[in-house]
Structure formats: structure tokens, C-alpha cells
Amino acid sequence: MRIDIRKTYKLYIGGAFPRSESGRTYEIKDAKSNFIANPAQASRKDLRDAVTAARGALGGWNGATAFNRSQILYRIAEMMEARSEEFVEEIALLEGVSKVAAKKQVEQAIDAWVWYSGWCDKISTVAGSTNPISGPFYNFTVPESVGVVGIFPAHKSALLGLVQAIAPVIAGGNTAVVVASQKFPLCAVTLSEVMATSDLPGGVVNILTGITSELAPWMGSHMDVDAIDATGLSKELEKEVRVTGADNLKRIHKFSTSDTPQRILAFMEYKTVWHPIGI
Amino acid sequence: MLTKIFSFTRAMHSNPFSWQTFFRYNFDVQLVDGTDASIRRFLKELPGVDQVGAEARAAMLATRSIKTASKKWAIDCAISMIDLTTLEGSDTDGKVRALCTKAVHPDPTDPSVPSVGAICVYNDKVATARKHLDSIGGQAIPVAAVSTAFPSGRASLEVKKQDTLDALNNGATEIDMVIDRGAFLSGDLVKVFTEIVYIKELCGDRAHLKVILETGELVTLDNVRKASHLAMAAGADFIKTSTGKISPAATAPVVLVMLEAVRDWYAMTGIRIGVKPAGGIRTTKDAIKQLVLVRETAGEEWLTPKLFRIGASALLNDLLMQRMKLRNGNYAGPNYVTLD
Amino acid sequence: MTFEYSPAPESTAIVDISAQYGLFINGKFVAAKGSKTFNTINPATEKVLAKIAYAHASDVDKAVISARNAYSKVWSKMAPQERGKYLFRIARIMQERAREFAVLETIDNGKPIRETRDIDVPLAAAHFFYHAGWADKLKYAGAGDNPRPHGVVGQIIPWNFPLLMLAWKVAPALATGNTVVLKPAETTPLTALLFAEVCQQAGLPAGVVNIVTGDGATGSALVNHPDVDKIAFTGSTGVGKGIARAIAGTGKSATLELGGKGANIVFDDSPIDQTVEGIVNGIFFNQGHVCCAGSRLLVQENVHDELIEKLKRRISQIRVGDPLDKNTDLGAINSAAQLARIKEISSSGDSEGAHRWSPECNLPEKGFWYPPTIFTGVTQANRIAQEEIFGPVLSVLTFRTPQEAIDKANNTPYGLSAGIWTEKGSRILWAAKQLKAGVIWANTFNKFDPASPFGGYKESGWGREGGRHGLSAYLKGGEK
Q1: Cβ contacts (< 8 Å) between B74 and chain C: which residues?
Q2: pTM score, two decimals?
Q3: What domains can you pick out in chain C, each with its CATH number?
Q4: Is C317 in CB contact (< 8 Å) with chain B?
């Protein structure tokens, strides 16, 4: 019998796959308490590095054409489709659901990428406006990316929650620092491997695995994080993040619905531009 | 650098000169030497005018509330700045004499009313005007003649020169020439420039030259600024908005831009050029708005008939009626001011 | 004699200020619980205008109960079109009483009558008219198919545009079906109290608009009231952060319009005379008490001297003095405290080596005044380039390349407004895209309109006010 090759589950920062600078890992078990893996346990310094990488990637990503971003999101769907078996395995193993259910979740996640891919070059049209000014001025409003977004994805159906959080954030031109579900981190790491092979520039999405309660306060207080998707945080952690997040007035949102343009727009800022109309 | 160049050009105009000397002087400094390239380069360096911003500034200044003592001062100031004008095909000697009489004593019942700034007529009425003014104590009032195939400016250079000479020989001491708007709009800036230079040369020391831009045909404020500078570079003593035959004429934004032009010209050269809005200024309120524009744009120094004139006819009676109101507290009626 | 403008004071006969004002709760003026009052003064003369009731927490509670009752019993049940009609009525009454509002605002705030008459009051009325028409069209507002109001909204507004900020807050809140408890600024309550009278004249159902006067503690009681569903605040970034912390974990949503340090960028090909006007309007409009003021002038170095010369000449024309004089351009500083703050930060400009310049101007002896002031030779490291002065003080910096201009403009925690001056269209769009600010004025500055969303990036706040985007902030299921 052949001994299979196990995967080392690492962090995804700036397009690279480092271990935690702290050298820490934590143990993941399946529904039946069997050992599965020792993913990295990210430290606050890893989070800091991830924010730096996200900030560095921001200009290129939101400066790219919407069509280009759209194609890259679609490419992620293509790459996921190719590796869907692996996701199905991980979900079935970790979440203790049937393969059929796991497959359905993977398909939904892939379709979510496709859905958000299409939004990249339509969100401005739908959410922007030209505004009739009472005077000789041309005035328009466009949504723009808010910047670096910290993401705490929903825990339930870990892959789907993850994709439904990341896709709208990067569709809007933001870059992301994701703290993966503490309990179900494997899909997040596999997703990072998909992203690394999807023409997504390094640093646009950074994925940390580790202890949510350890990392959340650092995300909340980091002055170079512009916004947070707090969907996956407990009430207590959410409140803490909101309090520390007030230091730089982070935009902090928690979502109960998915696949709505509101999830993109929550991480966009409206910019209004005026210009006189004259000869 | 710029200052030096402009003073060169100006020095040229204040002396009798020939084309040869003109080119020679200016060839050295390589700016406005009369060539197309130099004129284009010069005008291109001018900052643009944002129409909406200029209109907003003019509108804001129009909200200035001029009351009591300042209003009284402004009314007399405006009267002294009027170029009392008649430019009709139906003008006769009788009409011109009547106008001259009014120019000297705008209100026969009140000798404290100042005389107007000038009389403005076609060149064939200059002699009549001059003679009549001199005979009734109006020696100090200049006679201005519109010239260079006013109002269209569509004639040969020779005709324009002769037009001007006639006026000068009949005693005009101010020449209100029109620029060739067609040439300006078609890009023949050399033609516009050289025509002004020629007419200025004819005026010499005998007459002040007012250059009419006819801003209603230039349309954009960018053109107004360019034409203003072009006229000043070519030797204008005054820049004037309009002939009065085209609407719109002396709108507040146009006057604002022209006042900015003379202000900037002064900053560059140390020479103050006058401004004359003409056309559409009919009420005391309009006139006072013009004075506010002058005060807050070019500055107080321009509040003299030497540097600011208002081309008008009906305006005078409105100013007189307002003056009566300030004097005796009652609103006046048109039968208490004279018809011309 | 020269052309000096004679005094042209606007008559104050049109306003009738009571000696004392109560709180406006449930459609009536009522006494506050305690006997505590505070004075509102005319900052141009330091004369006391009226005694104002001080609302304690229990008064705020009454106001919230009144708003809740009005919400659940009347306002939320009313057909949207009928709701809109009340707003139209309010707009019309404000237009009818515009002169009264303008004079009262000038007296209470210190800003010139020219501005209250031509800007504050007409814009405030326009805001009501604009939002009135939204009331029955909310499903087209971009907030989903089933837009719903939050309920009771607590609104706290500043002293710099008392009536206009009231309109920015109250009009969209009412149009979307919310009811309101509004706290005007301590130093400028009078036009809000006159607005209460407008609500009465309009027959607005009792409790839809409630007005509680007081200070920071009153505002805090409103923010922390458990039955308030949403907070809308305009004011300092410091207080805004406090509100964000206070509502953390409560489920309340908030719109915050906070401070700014707007960069006004002048390229060497700008339309220079309009640029000068825009700079003046950008920093001296409303005595510089403007969160979106263009308080940092970034000038391309090759036109710096020429621009500054023209700017100084123009600033010398600014008429400082009696706010009621129709020819006054720059009125009184709103309060002694604000004047002290302007003086304090400005003096840091002197000590940090920037060059101060003000035109000669005779400031009145009574009242709070500060001359129009510019500092040249300022660098990003100076306090006057970083902190919001909220007064008629301009800091002038230079740049060499377009990218440097953008980098310096964005180098601030704020992100409310920015200006771009150039005749080159493609550069305008390039700069507008780069600038991290919610409102960008290209070849103009400090323009406002009910249809135009207003609000900031970064620490300048949350959400927008005005336009469709501002409206959705008052709707659940909204975009923000």
C-alpha cells in the first residue's frame, strides 16, 4: 500500500505561502475527532504582513480595468472547477456532511465566483449616477473601492461563506486580508492555492489561518485596514472590533444575505465629481 | 522677461515709427514681432477663462448693495464716464448738437451735475460736434469717432485708414475702431494685430485709440481675453466691448474678463489701459454694477474717465432721475429730464 | 473721495426673537425638566439673543417617546405620497419665510447675510423640495425592493450651517418614513426653533420632528438612548469616533459627516482668475467653518509666486465685518471657543516657520473676529497642514509633478473633499480618480446641491447625504 502525500497547510500572504512567523500550528480534527492537519496559527505579525501585502497590491488591483478583474474572477471559477474534487473531500471530511451536500456547496461557491465576476464591470453602472444640479455643472457619482478589507467569513458551509465574502470585496476593487474559519480552515488554504494559479496578483487576497479571537482585535485596531466584514465574528468580538475600529472609522458590516450587489457596495465609497459646464 | 518685452512694444507705439523699426525692435526680443507665430505664442500663454466661474464672480459682485453716500458718488462718477453716443443712420447735425448740449449740462436745473466723458458719433458728425461743444463751453469734452468701417469692420485697410483720417482731421481726439472679427475667428491674428498698429500709428499723439472687440461675436470669454491682450499688444489705449449693434454686448462677465486683462497688463508693463463697456447699460443699477466690477477687479485707480468709460445714451437720463431722487427724496419722472 | 461702500445693513425687523425658548416635543414647545437654560449670543456683538432650555436625559427620553409614538401610530402608516406632501409644504413655507430665516441665521451664527440669503436658506428649502419627491419613489432608490425606514432617528447637527444641516438631516429622514429627534448645536439653536414653527404651520403630525436643545451631554443622551434606531451626526471627527464606539454592538446604524483637510490642487495651466476665486471660496466661505473647506492649497511650484500674488490681491478685497451688511464677505467667528482654537493652531504655523500673511483690515472691537489669513511655505509636516483649523486660514504647499500633488493630497487621515484646477480634461479625470475624497470639485469649489451626494472617505465619515445615495442611508436594506 502506498503512503499518500499529505499537504502542508500554510498561510497565503503577498502571493507566497509562508508558515507563520511564530512557528505555531494548531490541530484540526474531523467530525469524528480524527487528526486531519496542522495548519499554521497566524500571529499578529502575520496579520500585519498580510495588511502590508494587501495595501501594496491595492493600487494595481483597483487600477486594473473592471473587465480585467472580471476575467480574473472568472478564472478563479475555472481553476476551482478543476479542483472541485479536492474541495468536496475537504468539506465532507471536516464539516461531516455528505459528499452530495459538499459537492453542492462547491458548485455554489464556483457559481458565486461567476456571479461576482459579472458584477466587476457593472456595479458602477448600476450604483453610480449622474446628478441633475441646479446650475451649470456636470456632476456624477461613482462607487470606488474602499481599500484594504479584513474578512471574517461565515463559519457555516466554510467554503461558500468564504467565497461569498471574498468575491464581492475583490470584485469592487479592494484587496483582502481573510481570517479563515478557525474550525474549517482547509478549504481556505486550498482556495488560496487556486487563487495563486488564477492570474490574481499576489497580495490581492491574503489568507490567514489561526485563532479568530486572537487575530480579530488586531484587525480591528490596525490603522491601515479600511473596512471589515464581521459576518463570522461572535457578538462579543464584533463589538470589540467595532470599538477599536472606531479609531480610524473602519466601515464594519455584518451580512445576513449573500449574493446581492449590496455586499459589493458595502465595501465601496461613493465619489462625487463636479465640473462646470461652459464654453 | 515679459515686462521688458511689453515695455518695448509699448515704447514703439508711443513714438512715430515705421514698420522697419517695429520689426527691428521686436525681432530682437522674439515675442510679439507682428508675425503669426509670435502672436500665437503670446496668446497661447494666456490662462484660460472658465465661463461658469467668471459668471459666478460677476453675479456675486452684482449683489453689492450700494446705498446713500456711495450711491451718490457712483452716480456722478458714472455720468462723468459716459461716452454719450448717437450712432444712427438718421443722425443729423441737429441731433448731434442736442446731444452735445446735454453732454455739457446733463441737468439744466442742477449745475452740480458733471459733464459726460465724451461725445461719440460717426466721423461725418465729428466736426459738428466739436464746433458745437466748443461754442457752449464744452471744450474739455472730447469727441470720439467710431471708425474702421464701424460696426462690421468689413472694408479694406485703405478705407479704414481713410475713415480714421477723416475723423482725426475733423477734430476727433478719440478713435473707436472695430477689430476684424472675421479675421480673428478665422485665425488671421496678424491682420487683426496689424490693423490696430496702423490705426494707432495714424492716431499718434492726436487721439486716444479705443479698440472695439465686439465680444458678442467673439462669443467665448477665452476669445475676449485673447482679443483684449492682442489689442493691448498692438497699441490700444482702451479696449471696448461692443459696437452696440450686436447683442449680447457689455455683459458683466465680459467686462470682468476685460478688467482682468488690463489689470494683468498693468502688472506686466506698468501701463494702465482703459476699458469701455458699451451697449445694454441702461439703468443706474447697471452702471453701478459696472463701477463695482471696476473697483473690485482692476482697482480704484481705474475709477476715472481716463480709464473707464461707459458707452450709452439712455443711461444718462436714468442716472439723472436717480440723482434727483437722492437730492429731494421723491422718485422722478421722465418729464423732468430732457429728451435729446 | 473714493468708492467706499456705505453701510448696507439688512433690516432685522423681520425676525421676532423670544426671550426664552423651550424644547419642541410632540408638536409643542414645552419646558425642560430642570430650570437650567443657556444663552445663545450674537457672535458679532456678543449680545445675548435668547435663553434656551437645556434638555436633560429625561427630556431626550420624552422626545424619543414622542418620536416613537408618531412613528408607529402615524408616520409609518401614512401613504408615502401624503408624507411627501408635508415635505413639499415645509419647503414652501421655508421659501416664504426665507428672509426671516436668513436674518435669524446671520444673527445667531455670525455668517454674512449674503451667504444665508443666497446659499444656506435657499439650499435648505431645496433639500426639502428634493426629498419630498422621493417619499413615494423609495423602491427606486437602490435599496432593494422592500425599503423600510429605521424608525426613530437621532440627529445631531453642528453650528456652521445650522439650518442647512438641519435640512440635510431632517428632509431625507422624513421622506423615507423615519421620525426625528434633532439636537441643534449649542451656539446656534434659533433657526432650528424657527423650523419647529414651520413644522407647526405645515401641520406636520405631532412628534414626527422633535427638537431638543442642549450641549454634548444632551447629544450623548440621544446617541445612547435604547429606543433610537439610527444616528446621524455632523461634527468633529473626535466626537464621531466617540459615537461609533458608543453604538458598537447596539445594532444602531449611523451616518457620520466629520472633519476634513481638503486639498485644493492648482496646476500650472489652470484658469487662473477663476482659480483664485475658487481658492477664496474654498477657504473663506462661511469664515472657513466648513468641513469640506479647501484648507490645504497645493500649488504647482512654477506658478506659485504668480498665484500667491493674485491671491493676496484678491484677499485684500474681502470685506470683513458686520454680518448683516449686505456687502460683507467674511463675518464673525461663531464662538469665543472656536476663535481660541483658530488662534492656537494658527500660532503653530508661526512657530513652525510658515509665513503668515493677512490683508490690512479693521476688525470690530466687540465680537469674535479673525482676519483672512494665508500661510505660505507650509510643509506636510506642519500642524497647519494636518489639523483641521475650521477658520479662515489657508495653508499653501507646493508640488512639482501631478503624482506628487496626489500623494500629498491623500496624505491625511481625512478624505472629504478635494479640488482640481486645470484646463486639461484628461488630467482632471486622472486626478479625480486618484484622489481619496468623497467630493471632488474640478474647476469649482464648495458647491452643494440636494441631488449631489456628499460625504467622506476614511476618517471624514460614514455614508453620504444628498442624492439617491444619501437617501438609502435612511432605509433598511440600504446600500450602506
Answers
A1: 3
A2: 0.95
A3: 20-258+459-476 (3.40.605.10), 263-442 (3.40.309.10)
A4: yes
